Amino acid sequence: MSVGHYENFPVASLLLPARLRRPVGIIYRFARTADDFADEGALAPGERLARLEEYRGELQRLLRNQAPQSPLFEALGGIVLAYALPLRPFFDLLDAFSQDVVKSRYADFAEVMEYCRRSADPVGRLMLQLCGAAREDNFPLSDAICSGLQLANFWQDVAVDFRKDRIYLPQDEMARFGVTEAQIAAGDTGGGWQPMMRFQVERARAMLQFGAPLARRIPSRMGLELRMIVKGGLRILEKIDRVHGDVFLHRPVLTALDWPLVALRAFRT
Asked: What pTM did the predictor assign?
């Protein structure tokens, strides 16, 4: 799922078993700080990539059973050993963040999904490992949830990303609906914008709904946490629909008033 500065979803929330709050928090700090290297501040691209490469070096030390050189990776190494976490997902996250530095347009949905495979899906697979549910039949459901959440974040943040000169909307689909970059720059929701956004929202919604049964396969408190996360993602998509795709003037966010509704929906499923 997205680790953007605006958090749609709780991190290491009280719903998690107490024993998992620390490892989840450490994984989040790894992803958050690495994502900041790619996104935040006024660093030149080369500097951003160099910072991410330093993280890769730390992961390589863990891979070689060598002592890490920073407190974050000392903590990460501890939970990797304690929970037999694979290191591949961490490398995949770094690859996605590096891609954000050098790639700003996506030719088609397959390219977007390949990005999601590395930017979002690894988090879900790590969570499955932490709760003892890392089975082959669970991975497709987890990936669908994580990629669906990433797409929801993309569609709520079209304007935010455009200010960073990034467009995650597939270029071929923009062309099919007659949507241009100039239209995004102007915040223009006319022409094919609304039908295109409905299409994007429906596809993300279908992915979240496909993955939702995973919550019934994992331990109860983790399952409830996951149901709330899925319902939160669906609520964001619902809000995009409600403003007819106008994420320029009405960027959808989850507020304090939304969480009781999200919780009620989670308990009912």
From this structure: 0.93
